Amino acid sequence: MRNGNWCAIFSRQCDPSWSGLGLLWPVSFGSLLRTPLEQLFIATSDILSLLAAGIALLALVALMQLRSRLARMQLVMEQQTQTLLAIQGAVKVLSGEALTHREDLASVRRAIDRVGELNQQTRLEMRLRDADGSPYTQAIQLIRHGQPRAEVRKLCSLTDSEVDLLFNLHGQGVALGLDSNQDN
Q1: Which residue ranges make up each domain of the chain?
Q2: Which residue in 15, 18, 167, 169 could disulfide with 175, CB within 3.0 to 4.6 Å?
Q3: How far is Cα 14 from Cα 8, in angstroms, rounded to an integer?
Q4: How many whole angstroms separate alpha carbon 171 and alpha carbon 178?
Q5: What parts of the sequence cross the membrane (predicted)?
Q6: Does the predicted model carry a pTM greater than 0.70?
Q7: CA 111 to CA 44: how far, in whole Å?
């Protein structure tokens, strides 16, 4: 740059032709006073200005890309939220059905147990009928199979004292009152 331009910017002792104008427009007039060789070279401040503008442009492009990416991510997140809600609903339905099936299975097991008990009692009654037919013989067989006093009394149509006598004679541990199903 020429001395006159620096003088107009940094000092009050300027060339009279630059005194008022140099302070207001030093760059524009300074570029007019440059030689053709000086005009080929770009000043450091001009380079820094261009560099800052380029960085600002890159930042603006990056910001636009980030906003676009954020919008896509929000859309994906919304879709995943909807999917998660659907999965939660399906889990609730399945857990309710599993509970229902578990309850059904428990009732089926109870029914099978009842049928098994009835089957066992029916077999026992049939064996008693096949025996000699005496209520005392039937009662002895029931006592040996571990039937409680009330069952023996009911099935064989015996009195309390007859049942007590049979339990005392044939009941081993039952005659001593160790039968947990004993009815008085």
Answers
A1: 1-41, 131-184
A2: 167
A3: 6
A4: 10
A5: 40-63
A6: no
A7: 98
